[in-house]
Every structure is written in C-alpha cells, then in structure tokens.
Design brief:
Blueprint (H helix, E strand, L loop, with lengths): L8 H14 L12 H8 L3 H13 L3 E4 L3 E4 L16 H7 L4 E10 L13 H8 L7 E10 L2 E11 L5 H8 L6 H9 L5 E9 L6 H4 L10 E9 L5 E9 L20
Helix pairs in contact: 1-3, 2-3
C-alpha cells in the first residue's frame, strides 16, 4: 500500500485501515496489526494511527484491549446505515439497497409565527439555537427523498440567510438539489462536523403536508423523527433540521459501548 499523501491524515488513515479490515479473513483472525506496523505500512506516525483507531473504536468498528491489541468487532462490519457517524440521506438510501433521488420542494424565508415542524420548538427557539443575529433572516428549506421512486424521507432545514451567501445565494439555493451542507460550505466556508439530536416518533397526522402530498395514498404509518442542531468546525451552530424517515426503507443501526458500574454492590 502506498504511503498516505493528504492533509487529513487521521481520516485517510481511518479509511486505509477500513480497507485492511475488508481484506482480512475475520473468521480466522480479527486482530489488527500493531500500531507501529500500521504506521510503517501507511507511511504515517503512530500518533495518526492511534487517532484513527480511537475513531474506529468510538464508532464500534474495533475494540481496543489494553495489553492485548486492537480487534475488529466482526458484528459491526455488516452494518450499512449508521447513526454515528451519521451519513446523509442519499447515501443511507443507497446503502439500504435502493436507487436514491431527491426533490427540492422549497427554499424561502421562514414563517416565524409558526413552529419548528411538529411544534416542539417555536421559531424564536430556532433562532436562539442557531445564535442568529437580529437582522439575519431565517430560511426554511424542504426536500423529499425517494427510494426507487417512492417517497421515504422528508427533511426540513432552518438556517440563517448569511450562511447561504445572502440574496444571491438564496436565488441559487432555489435551484440547488444537492447536499445543503456542501452548499453552505461553498458559500460560507463553514463545514458541518457534528450534530446534537433528539429522536422521536411522528404519527401520520403529525407529518408535514409538504411530505404527505408527495405520497400517492398519504402517510399510513408512523415515521422516525430526528431533530438536530448541526455544528461547524468551530462548534458554532449552522443548521437546525428535522427529518422524517420511513424505517421500512432506511434501517439505522448503532453499536453502543456500555458504561456499567460492576463494582457497585
């Protein structure tokens, strides 16, 4: 394997380690090579390898056992759609075995007298969560996602007009159906890196009309509801979002580490 040549070494090292894992016969041996061997093989420092392995451990892909080494969590390899790291809906649909597509429904100034989707928050709450300046308009951005042509998810994003590049950016956004995060990055240089989420269930009567109008027979089953605040590389809030996901299409999985106090009697 060629030495890694990139400014994002730990991320690329993580990708390279995943390639190594994919080439392993895990039925025979699930132990990874030592850190110093991986560092030599990939042409990076042990510090970079350690960070990459710690990231994989946080995702549940590997487990690190002091004095024994790093082992692949075999059961995690078959997971195709994860909560952490969180993938975008188009990729989640593709990984679920369907052909994804998306339709931009609207991008306009939000009605600040209404609530944040299902009414959990007011628009004043949204402005506070986004830390918007007084003169910064709040923008509402709706998309519906399809799996093999059938609607399976709806996303409503809120963000300040300033991160979209002002009026010129908003004009372009009305015709832009690619990733909102890439659009924001290209316009403002702010890169979404993590989010804080609330997970709920939405009954058919609670779903936005913008979504139910896209379904030929209307929504007939509860959907997973994910409310999130997305933060940039400086941990500043960028986008508030609410997603409604049909879990018969997209099945999320999460490998969780347990925090059990075995010493307490």
């Amino acid at each position: 394997m060629d030495p890694l040549k990139t400014t994002s070494l730990s991320a690329r090292a993580q990708e390279a380690i995943m390639q190594i894992i994919e080439g392993m016969d895990l039925a025979q041996d699930n132990k990874l090579p030592r850190e110093e061997l991986l560092a030599s093989q990939l042409g990076v420092s042990r510090t970079t390898i350690r960070q990459a392995l710690n990231n994989l451990a946080a995702e549940g892909v590997v487990s690190r056992r002091q004095g024994k080494g790093t082992f692949v969590n075999v059961d995690s390899i078959g997971i195709r759609v994860t909560f952490s790291p969180c993938m975008e809906l188009m990729q989640a649909i593709r990984n679920s075995g369907f052909e994804p597509s998306v339709r931009l429904l609207s991008a306009h100034a939000a009605d600040e007298s209404s609530g944040f989707s299902s009414g959990r928050y007011s628009m004043d709450d949204v402005r506070r969560m986004l830390e918007l300046e007084a003169g910064d308009r709040l923008i509402e951005h709706d998309k519906v996602f399809f799996a093999d042509g059938e609607p399976c998810a709806f996303c409503r994003d809120y963000f300040g007009a300033s991160v979209a590049g002002g009026e010129a950016g908003l004009d372009e956004l009305e015709r832009y159906d690619d990733s909102l995060y890439r659009f924001v990055y290209n316009r403002s240089g702010r890169r979404v890196e993590w989010d804080k989420v609330e997970i709920d269930v939405a009954a058919p009567d609670d779903l936005p009309a913008a979504f139910t109008s896209q379904t030929p027979r209307g929504a007939s089953r509860p959907l997973l509801c994910i409310r999130s605040v997305n933060y940039d590389q400086d941990s500043r809030p960028v986008v508030c979002a609410v997603e409604y996901v049909d879990t018969s299409v997209i099945r999320y999985n999460l490998v969780r580490q347990k925090a059990v106090d075995y010493q307490r009697q």
